[in-house]
Amino acid sequence: MEQFLGDGWKVQPAGGATGEAYIAQQGEQIVFLKRNSSPFLAVLSAEGIVPKLLWTRRLENGDVVTAQKCIQGRELKASEMKESRVACLLAKIHRSSELLDMFKRIGNEPLTPYVIVENLRRQLQTYQIEDEAIEDGMAYLLEQLETVLHEHFVVCHCDINHNNWMLDEDEHLYLIDWDGATVSDPALDLGLLLYSYIPELEWEAWLAQYGQVLDTSLRERMHWYVVSQSISVLLWHYGRNQFEQVEQLKDYITSLLQE
Fold it and tell me: Which domains does the chain have, with CATH numbers?
């Protein structure tokens, strides 16, 4: 990476699961580099959803490197996910026609409940897991499949963990790490956020800031997506032999099905 940038640049890994992100510095200039980042980074940057995109270059091996402004900020705390600015930014993302058009142009097919269930079935066959909590969860997903079908699709981030929300030095809020984003029901993002961070008694008020009424349909869809995502994350940990997390998620799925 240093050879690619030229003399005077110092590059170090920025961490993260993929190992494809770096911090590069030359004098006082600091940039965030990523290899093969999201193809719609330019749209996200133009809308102020991620830090400013500075340039994009293609390497000889075909990889694409992007450089973004390196913000001097911090991650949101879990308690700050209740704030109106989080609801407003997520609403902006979900209502962005530019983002949705970009996804469609690159051939991104909607992640529907049917697709989710089929993906989970394939993973379960691969791992050959027999477990009551997972079987009960899958039975619930199948039973409610027709109920949760929703025709309104938006661009969903799919990993709204508070660590992905960044405040810069000017208190501007960004949502970073778009590698897992897809087109789906907004209830996917909303369910994960509300179940993880917002007490149920405050859901209605938080959604009002987002611009959505909490009706029966949204409740059912959010619950369905949280169950499906919990099974998916369980399988992710299972594939890495992280059995303590697997057991915790089994208990969580069981508790969700009792609601």
Answer: 2-70 (3.30.200.20), 75-257 (3.90.1200.10)
